[in-house]
Design brief:
The complex is a heterodimer of chains A (234) and B (189). With 234 residues, chain A is mainly beta. Chain A has one domain: Aromatic compound dioxygenase (Protocatechuate 3,4-Dioxygenase, subunit A). Helix content of chain A is 4%, strand content 24%. In chain A, strands 2, 5, 10, 11 and 12 form a five-stranded mixed beta sheet that branches. Chain A has a four-stranded antiparallel beta sheet with strand order 4-3-8-9, with no helix packed on it. In chain A, strands 6-7 form a two-stranded antiparallel ribbon. The longest helix of chain A is centred in the C-terminal third of the chain and has 5 residues. The two termini of chain A are 18 Å apart. Chain B is an all-beta fold and 189 residues long. In chain B, strands 1, 4, 7, 8 and 9 form a five-stranded mixed beta sheet that branches. In chain B, strands 3-2-5-6 form a four-stranded antiparallel beta sheet, with no helix packed on it. In chain B, a hairpin with a 6-residue loop joins strand 7 and strand 8. Classes of the chains: A mainly beta (234), B mainly beta (189). At the A-B interface, strand 1, helix 1, strand 3, strand 4 and strand 9 of A face helix 1, strand 5, strand 6 and strand 10 of B. Strand 1 of chain A pairs parallel with strand 10 of chain B, so a sheet runs across the interface.
Chain lengths: 234, 189
Amino acid sequence: MASLPGYRRPYPGTQPDYLHPPYISSLKRAPSKPLVYLPHTLSEVTGPTFHASAVDVKACDLTRQHSGEPLGERIVVSGRVLDENARPVPHTLVEVWQANAAGRYQHKVDQHDAPLDPNFTGAGHTLTDEKGQYRFVTIRPGAYPWKNHQNAWRPAHVHFSLFGPAFATRLVTQMYFPGDPLLPVDPIFNCTADEKARNRLVSLLDWETTVPEHALGYKFDIILGGRESTPWEK
Amino acid sequence: MNRQATTSQTVGPFFQVGLSRFYVHDLAGPGVSGQRVEIVGRVLDGDGQGVPDAMIEIWQANAHGKYAHPDDRQEKSTEPGFQGYGRTPTEEDGLFRFKTIKPGQVLGPDGKLQAPHIVVSVFARGLLRRLVTRIYFPDDAANSEDYALSLVEPSRLHTLIAKKSSKHDGVMEWNIVLQGPDETVFFDC
């Protein structure tokens, strides 16, 4: 059997190193030995898929999960999921989670002294459509303090989790907001050496998806690893 | 023009908010074929402390050695009750467990069958990218011929092979050591 085409490896500098000393939690958790290079096998070019029946169609609107409306600035976060060959990634699961407008997560470990919002859980999911598009309605999350260093504050962000077509394309990332003054001092945002790569984590204010009189739109396109060319494409 | 894949960011300490809906601890429903196994382990940091805020995902073939995925073109059958996907958070002491079946052998890149294995992603606060590793099964003759295991330094192979529990039948113990002398082998994948 001809060997399977694998997925492309990241461009140098565009993904974080495991050890990033300004991010204190990486010190005891980053592996100390070099990774073992593994050419992709059938196990890595396949991966979990999620059928539409597993998805709650209402889960893409984080502002309508409770009896009342959450406090904060309502926003639309949308974009396309593409691969490195610019092909849409259809029908893939996108999961998001975030703090509320006050910068507090609905999580027992979060002890930040800011109010919880009984009308906001901060969790959503959806499948991309056939063009790779996704769309969430939510509220703009607040910044919040954390214990990484003296007076450390995380910039406002939304967590994203995606599978893509294969085990090899799995991605967990964070989306940020344009013009946030906390970005230049955040060790997590700045963990990636390549400046252009990290700036692609910043969403764009988008008039096309802004709903007049209702919600500002932010656009965040996500690129997953692309497949190496297949023999019939060469 | 080629685009570049989006930069990874840590899953952080609050992933339960968003990722709990698709937790799957028990992969094999009733009637699924194969030898039942429970995999139990802990995620440990560089100080040997349990990591209470990690998330483990697994992906595996069914007992016939077939993945529930369109790119698996091996002439073997899928099983409706088995998707091969699992996800669980760790508990306070870093403990995690999955109930599943031992996968069959799938084709390797060298044209030979790979030994039965489960692929694993590890996410945690402190991990800016996921870590990728594999679980192999003890006393499986195919391990000595396995493609991925052949890439690993012999002195570190034991970190990829689960151990039979001396206390419980059908239980395999397999820890994930993130850092240190007995660090688990992680793959660049």
